[in-house]
Design a protein that fits this description.
The protein is mainly β. The chain has one helix spanning 2-17, and strands at residues 25-28, 32-35, 44-48, 53-60, 63-67, 73-77, 81-82, 86-89, 93-97, 106-111, 115-121, 126-130, 136-140, 144-145.
């Protein structure tokens, strides 16, 4: 019995020291109905806007279960999801800067729920983003969702 306890403690320690898996985010490509099951005959839950980032949870043939920014789980047709990564501003007002540095010049500010395109992940804690009007810069990861 003591041997099992030692193995369990070793396993838990190993699991806690392993790096966490990266979350898998995608973007909705067109306005879509979200369902409570993977079928168009299932109960519609809500509609989701084009460009909204979602976290992939489970994939089945033509359907994907996703989590939205509010934590809601629902099913969407796979064809309505893009490989493109979009982000959503979660702060009241996010500062997008010329460089990934708190002291860098602010290029523009984006209000809560504004959608941004991910250009590339930046240095730790930052992401390079582009607004739909073409402006781009770096935003703190804590100010956005979908990274």
């Amino acid at each position: 019995m003591a041997r099992v306890g030692h193995w369990l403690i070793a396993f838990i320690g190993l699991a806690m020291s392993a790096p966490a898996a990266a979350l898998d985010f995608r973007t909705v490509v067109e306005p879509a109905v979200m369902y409570d099951a993977p079928s168009q005959q299932a109960k519609p839950l809500f509609a989701i806007a084009r460009g909204t980032p979602v976290e992939l949870v489970v994939a089945l043939d033509a359907w994907i279960k996703v989590r939205d920014v509010k934590g809601e789980l629902a099913w969407i047709e796979k064809r309505q999801i893009s490989e493109k990564r979009g982000l959503m501003v979660r702060a009241d007002r996010a500062q997008v800067r010329a460089a990934p540095d708190d002291g860098a010049t602010i290029v523009f500010e984006a209000d809560h729920d504004v959608l941004l395109d991910l250009v590339e992940p930046g240095p730790a804690g930052w992401a390079k983003v582009r607004h739909r009007d073409g402006q781009q810069g770096f935003v703190k990861a804590a100010q956005i969702w979908g990274l």
